[in-house]
């Protein structure tokens, strides 16, 4: 599989293994097509998770977006990740794996990452009016949307 993908994408991908876990780092320009190939040609028929990691110190590529894929026919798991700039979209894979719908919504809700082509990208865990994205590093561990808490719960934040 790695040879086929390297022949197709060249330096656009960087396959790696860490502690027995396989992953592919893909340039954002090819990641959408790569994910389609992973489903259609490499038999990764289940999208287990879509998540992100925030690296605020890494200017210009503050986020890793990570798709965890599983192949039932191959009994194999692989992660595909790409790096994006804060504010830039990642490709939606809802058309490839229906399970990605709520996973992308959660990633948007927690990190603020927009998925281009998502059919209904909106918050899924937090209330619609919530300010901020709790899994970003600059969002403090005890921070809440004080205004939302006061208006909707009638209490001061932190109580």
Description:
The protein has 159 residues and is α/β, with parallel strands linked by helices. It is 26% helix and 27% strand. The chain is built from 4 helices and 7 strands; from the N terminus they run αββαββββαβα. The protein has a 5-stranded mixed β-sheet with strand order 1-2-5-4-3. Strands 6-7 form a two-stranded parallel ribbon. It is elongated and about 60 Å long.
Q: Can you name the CATH architecture of the largest domain?
A: 2-Layer Sandwich
Shape: elongated
State the secondary-structure class: alpha/beta
Low-pLDDT stretches are: none
What name does the CATH topology of the largest domain carry? Answer: Beta Polymerase, domain 2
What are the secondary-structure elements, in order, as H or E? Answer: HEEHEEEEHEH
Number of strands: 7
Mean pLDDT: 93
Give the total of domains: 2
The CATH class of the largest domain, by name, is Alpha Beta
Helix content: 25-40%
Largest sheet: 5 strands, mixed
Report the sheet-strand fraction.
25-35%
Observed structural traits:
159 residues, alpha/beta, 27% strand, single chain, five-stranded mixed β-sheet, Beta Polymerase, domain 2, 7 strands, 2 domains
Helix-strand layout with pairing:
Elements: H1 2-9, E1 13-18, E2 21-26, H2 28-40, E3 46-54, E4 63-71, E5 76-84, E6 90-91, H3 100-111, E7 115-116, H4 146-153
């Amino acid at each position: 599989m790695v040879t086929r993908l390297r022949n197709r994408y060249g330096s656009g991908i960087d396959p790696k293994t860490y502690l027995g876990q396989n992953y592919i780092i893909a340039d954002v320009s090819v990641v959408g097509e790569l994910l389609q190939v992973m489903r259609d040609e490499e038999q990764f028929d289940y999208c287990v998770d879509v998540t992100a990691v925030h690296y605020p110190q890494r200017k210009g590529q503050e986020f890793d977006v990570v798709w965890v894929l599983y192949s039932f026919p191959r009994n194999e798991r692989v992660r595909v990740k790409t790096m994006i700039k804060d504010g830039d979209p990642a490709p939606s894979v809802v058309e490839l794996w229906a399970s990605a719908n709520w996973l992308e919504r959660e990633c948007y809700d927690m990190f603020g990452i927009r998925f281009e082509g998502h059919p209904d990208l909106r918050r899924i865990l937090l209330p619609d009016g919530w300010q901020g994205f709790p899994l970003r590093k600059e969002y403090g561990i005890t921070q809440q949307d004080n205004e939302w808490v006061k208006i909707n719960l009638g209490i001061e934040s932190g109580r």
